[in-house]
Design goal:
Length: 392
């Protein structure tokens, strides 16, 4: 059964012909507010706004708390995650929270959202706000170059140094024709997620970030995000196996080396691995901490997007990542004019919303219906407007 239009859904359209509005702005508060923005910022020219009466996002709760510092927004590609993340960061900053917004998506669009170049790989201040907001796009290519450089010392491969520290340097020489060094010099899959993890740890551990009370993550599409969230577990298990292997090798070789009076190998490599493992455990605990972290799923009212959101919610539950809110972006209200396309589009969206209301994975989440606008949300004024109508 299709979901019938809710009486709470109110149509708020503003059509223009040659720049003249056909509807009085006083009767449509959302349009009137947007028009005020347009009078000040003429680079934005919105001809139509479709908004809905929606469930309150509970922003007062989000802004008032002192413990919940990290917000991660994710979902299917192309649903507006970046706009939602950027508008949330702007709203936090304007409400007195020094904020960082960071994109972990290799295909960045945070610079486009803020209309500002954020591709340098370092925190950049965002202008035009009442409070401090800094933005960062993690630069995967720059990180890959750093990986390759760090993996080579004095012309020898990093894998040789690592194996030397384990007393297996001779083995690497014997297997030199396999070019193991070149294999390690090539950045492995998941490096982008690993770099994002390292940035997360910087935000957690570095004292210079203590003054920021909110950190918003614009994550990559679903698959990358799930790899990011599962990476700490994978690295923890992998490092644990390497350490156990090293201990066995060390115990087997220590007796032989002691006979010949050789010194024990240095523990630098093992110490670094243990330190890395401890940091991965911290990240894992951070992702699953219901008091300090929240994952917000962003979707659009289509059957495919809702289905993927349901699977994402199930995966997040499996990873014990806390989720409270579901943003349904680009929602159309009932059409006020005779538009067959609008009616069919609305009918498809109602079918998708009905799926949400009946999906066991999504049913318990706070539903936020975000309005559709007919221009790109780009620049701080537009992000501020979007934040006011979404994060209520």
């Amino acid at each position: 059964m299709l979901l019938s239009p809710s009486p709470q859904l109110a149509c708020r359209y503003s059509f223009s012909v040659s720049g003249r509005s056909l509807l009085r702005p006083a009767a449509f508060p959302a349009v009137s507010r947007l028009r005020s923005f347009l009078l000040i910022h003429r680079s934005l020219r919105v001809r139509a706004v479709a908004s809905t009466e929606q469930d309150v996002a509970g922003f007062d709760e989000m802004a008032a708390g002192t413990k919940r510092k990290y917000y991660m927004l994710g979902g299917k590609g192309g649903v507006g995650k970046t706009s939602c993340a950027a508008s949330l960061a702007v709203k936090f900053a304007n409400n007195g929270h020094p904020t960082i917004v960071v994109s972990t998506d290799p295909a960045h669009s945070l610079s486009d959202s803020f209309a500002q170049d954020l591709s340098g790989g370092t925190l950049m201040p965002v202008d035009g706000l009442d409070g401090p907001l800094f933005a960062l796009e993690i630069n995967p290519e720059k990180a890959r170059e750093e990986f390759r450089s760090a993996n080579k010392t004095s012309g020898s491969s990093g894998v040789k140094d690592f194996m030397d520290s384990m007393g297996l340097g001779m083995l690497v020489e014997q297997l030199g024709e396999l070019k193991l060094g070149e294999l390690l010099d090539t950045p492995p899959p998941g490096l982008d997620e690993a770099i994002a993890i390292s940035k997360v740890m910087q935000f957690v551990e570095a004292p210079e970030y203590n003054s920021f009370s909110r950190i918003v993550f614009d994550t990559a599409p679903t698959g990358h995000t799930l790899r990011l969230l599962s990476l700490p577990d994978f690295l923890d298990a992998s490092i644990g196996k390497i350490l156990k292997l090293r201990e066995k090798i060390s115990s087997a070789t220590s007796a032989i080396k002691s006979v010949f009076g050789q010194e024990e190998p240095k523990q630098d490599a093992a110490d670094k691995l243990k330190q890395l493992r401890e940091r991965m455990i911290k990240v894992r605990e951070l992702f699953r901490d219901t008091e300090s972290t929240e994952f917000v799923i962003v979707t659009i009212p289509t059957v495919m997007a809702v289905s993927e959101s349901s699977r994402l919610r199930a995966s997040l539950k499996k990873e014990n990542v806390p989720v409270k809110r579901l943003v349904v972006n680009q929602v159309l209200p009932p059409s006020a004019v005779d538009c067959k396309f609008c009616a069919m589009k609305r009918k498809d969206q109602m079918r998708a919303l009905e799926m949400i209301y009946n999906d066991p994975e999504l049913l318990g989440l706070k539903l936020i219906q975000a309005p559709l606008v007919d221009v790109e949300i780009r620049g701080v004024p537009a992000l501020r407007f979007m934040g006011d109508i979404v994060w209520k």
